[in-house]
Specification:
With about 230 residues, the protein is of the alpha/beta class. About 50% of the residues lie in helices and about 20% in strands. The strands form 2 sheets. Strands 2-5-1-6-7-8 form a 6-stranded parallel sheet, with helices on both faces. A two-stranded parallel sheet has the order 3-4.
Length: about 230
C-alpha cells in the first residue's frame, strides 16, 4: 500500500501549501518517489501547481486537482454557483491513480477539517476515506491553542491518526509564539513538532522550507516513521 500524509490545517491561509511543498522536496531529495495531490480547490489552482512543481511531476493538473471551482469561496458554495456538486468519486479515482504510480503521497486539504464537502460530509471524512495520517499546520501566534485543540478533537473523533502539529509563520514579536509550543504540548496527545518562522524565502523556495523542516527533530522523527 502506498504511504502518505494528509496535510490539513486549523484554517485557510495557515501555510499548508508551503509546508506540503517543503515536505515533498525533502522526501524527493532522499530518493523517495513522491506524488502530490490537492483534491479540492476553489478560486485558483495555484496551490496544486506549486505542489506539482515541488515534486517535479508531469501528471495532468486534473489528476493532481480533480475538483476545481472558480469562485474563491467554500467548496460547496463555489460548486453550487456552477450548478455542480463536489464529486468525491472523482477524487478517489485520481487518488487511486496516483497511488499506483508513487511510493508516497502528499495530499493537501482545503481550509480546515470541518470544511463542508456535502450536506453531512467534511474534509475530516475525506481524510478518513483516504486512510492517511494527518499532519496539522497551525498558526504560530495568539489564538492557535483553541483552534488546534478543536482540530485535534475532530480528528480524534473519527479515529484518524495524527503525526503531529507544526506551527507556522512565527514573526518573533509575539509573546504567545514563545509559549505556544509548550502550552499546546501540555494539552495535546500528539507531538507538537516545533515552529517555522515567517520568511519570504521559505514561502518561495521548497528547498529552503525542506532545510527548515530538517532542523525540527520531532518532525523528522515522525516523518521517518511515516515513510518507512
Amino acid at each position: 500500500m502506498t504511504k502518505g500524509i494528509f496535510i490539513t490545517g486549523t484554517d485557510t491561509g495557515v501555510g499548508k501549501t508551503v509546508i506540503a511543498c517543503g515536505i515533498t522536496r525533502l522526501l524527493k531529495s532522499r530518493g523517495v518517489k513522491v506524488g502530490v495531490m490537492k483534491p479540492i480547490a476553489s478560486g485558483s489552482r495555484h496551490d496544486a501547481v506549486l505542489l506539482s512543481k515541488a515534486a517535479g511531476l508531469q501528471e495532468s493538473l486534473d489528476i493532481i486537482n480533480p475538483q476545481f471551482f472558480k469562485a474563491p469561496l467554500a467548496p460547496t458554495i463555489a460548486a453550487s454557483l456552477e450548478r455542480r456538486e463536489i464529486d468525491l468519486n472523482a477524487i478517489y479515482q485520481a487518488y487511486w491513480f496516483l497511488q499506483k504510480r508513487y511510493d508516497f503521497l502528499i495530499v493537501e486539504g482545503a481550509g480546515g477539517v470541518k470544511v463542508p464537502l456535502g450536506e453531512s460530509t467534511y474534509i475530516v471524512d475525506l481524510i478518513q476515506a483516504l486512510r492517511l495520517p494527518a499532519l496539522v499546520v497551525a498558526r504560530a501566534g495568539l489564538g492557535t491553542i483553541n483552534h488546534t485543540l478543536l482540530t485535534l478533537d475532530a480528528l480524534e473523533a473519527e479515529k484518524i491518526p495524527v503525526l503531529g502539529v507544526l506551527l507556522n509563520g512565527a514573526r518573533g514579536k509575539d509573546l504567545a509564539e514563545k509559549t505556544n509550543v509548550d502550552e499546546l504540548q501540555d494539552h495535546a496527545t500528539v507531538p507538537v513538532m516545533g515552529m517555522i518562522s515567517h520568511k519570504a524565502s521559505l514561502a518561495k523556495d521548497p528547498t529552503a522550507m525542506a532545510s527548515a523542516l530538517k532542523r525540527l527533530p520531532r518532525f523528522m522523527k515522525e516523518l521517518e516513521r511515516a515513510s518507512r
